[in-house]
Amino acid sequence: MKTVIAVENGDTLKALQGFLQALLGSGVVDALLVPMRTPNGTVTPALVTSPELISEADPLAPVLPVNAATLAGQLSVKEPRAKVGVVLRSCELRALVELTKMQQACLDSLMLIALDCAGTYNVPLYINKINRDKGQGVKDEKQVVGDKGEEAGDGGELDGLWLQLYRQAATHPESPDPELRSACKICEQPVYDGAQITIELLGNDVTHEIRISLPDELGTRMAMSETLVSNERLSVIDKLVAARAALRDTEFAKIRERLESEDGIDGVFAACIRCHNCMTVCPICYCKTCVFKSAIFDHEPMQFINWARQKGAYRMPADTILFHLTRLNHMALSCVGCGMCTEACPAELPVGIVFRAIGQRLQAAFEYVPGRSYVEPLPLVTFKADEWTEVGE
Q1: Least packed by Cβ within 10 Å: which of 126, 169, 289, 323?
Q2: Helix, strand, coil percentages, rounded to 5, for the chain
């Protein structure tokens, strides 16, 4: 069913909150995992059971503090389970599908609610923006919203941040906001098609109405009627995907040139301090016991001295390249390109772009797209008797 939610006074966020309140209040779900605004204005995922508290939800906030696929996994992997609606962006939903294949989540108890994504800022930048906008006030923020002079409505001084991103994605997809996270600027999957509910924001005038796709049975239960609408969503998405794919290919070419140069991967990751931040925030790295957090790499003091004597000098901390190569071997096939690893790196290493560039070739070799379908098996855990015939085995 295709339907619309009317937006009053241009307050898109309030209209979306009303829809989520109806989901929760009607008993369609027992709880919602949704981004919530904290008292100081920042945004974090929260599990909400009270419809009244949905008034603090802000799924439109253009920030991704964590890939919430991991959180959805925690809410669904074990029994007993409640019915939980999860409001997620495309990269989070694709990661959740991969986790399900790895038996780290269960889709049976989850209602997937997909949100079209025009991109996000990293957390420190977003905090700076909201603090700046608080100082300027609502009036100043409304003056810079859109290209037709429309006001952002009564939804608050932050409405302009997300609204500008969606309008820019629709009108100038080839020129993304330079302050967006690097992963978002090259994300060629801004929408997710496999969710039960899709909140369609791209290509629609969301200051007047929100278009939603949902199952007929659910629409009837919520007293919603089908609405036939013509929109430019598919055209906008096609242009956005093409623009992002072109920028992606440019960035991939740059990083491959570095990786294939004389310095190689050693040079790219030379500043790594093996803090494990990239591993910690990665939604695909799920191992409960990690070899890099075990005693295996607690080398004896004289071992370091012996290595140093062999070469005259030995890089410390040790085993940094082995760490990244092991991670690549474990999860490059399932990398969804969310870029959380890059954001978490204190040395600002291009971890995400390296994994994406290498993962692209690996995924192409297996004709596999991570997160595309739950029923599509992971290639490395699926045996095919004739899979090596093409290489003469």
Answers
A1: 289
A2: 45, 10, 45
Q: Six-digit token pair at 300?
A: 């004896």
Q: Which of these, 217, 230, 184, 223, lies nearest to 92 by C-alpha position?
A: 184
CA distances from 25 to 51, 53, 150, 222, 364 (A): 6, 11, 33, 10, 44
In the numeric block, the tokens 């790499």 are attached to 297
CA distance 157 to 160: 7
- Cα(259)–Cα(272) distance, rounded to whole angstroms? 15
How far apart CA 346 and CA 365 sit, in angstroms, is 32
Strand partners, 121: 63
Contact in structure between 184 and 119 (CB atoms under 8 Å): yes
SS3 for 159-190, per residue? HHHHHHHHHHHHHCCCCCCCCCCHHHHCCCCC
Distance CA 296, CA 152 (A): 56
- Condensed to tens digits (0 to 9), the pLDDT of residues 89-107 reads 999 999 999 999 999 999 9
Neighbours of 127 (CB within 10 A): 16
Q: Please name the residues in contact with 72: beta carbons below 8 A apart, sequence gap of 6 or more.
A: 33, 84, 86, 88, 92, 96, 99, 105, 110
Residues 6+ apart with CB under 8 A from 110: 72, 75, 76, 83, 84, 85, 86, 96
The pTM (predicted TM-score) of the whole model is 0.90
pLDDT at 293: 82
Q: Which residues pair with 199 in a beta bridge?
A: 115, 212
Give me the sign of the Cα torsion angle 314, 316, 318, 320: negative
Q: Which residue has the tokens 């389970």?
A: 81
Which residues have a Cβ under 8 Å from the Cβ of 288 and sit 6 or more positions away? none
Of 151-155, 204-208, 213-217, 334-338, where does mean pLDDT reach its minimum? Answer: 151-155
130-134, 272-276, 294-298, range with greatest mean pLDDT: 272-276
Determine contact, residues 337/251, Cβ cutoff 8 Å.
no
Q: What's the Rg (C-alpha) of the chain?
A: 23
296-333 confidence digits (pLDDT tens):
888 899 999 999 999 999 989 999 999 999 999 988 99
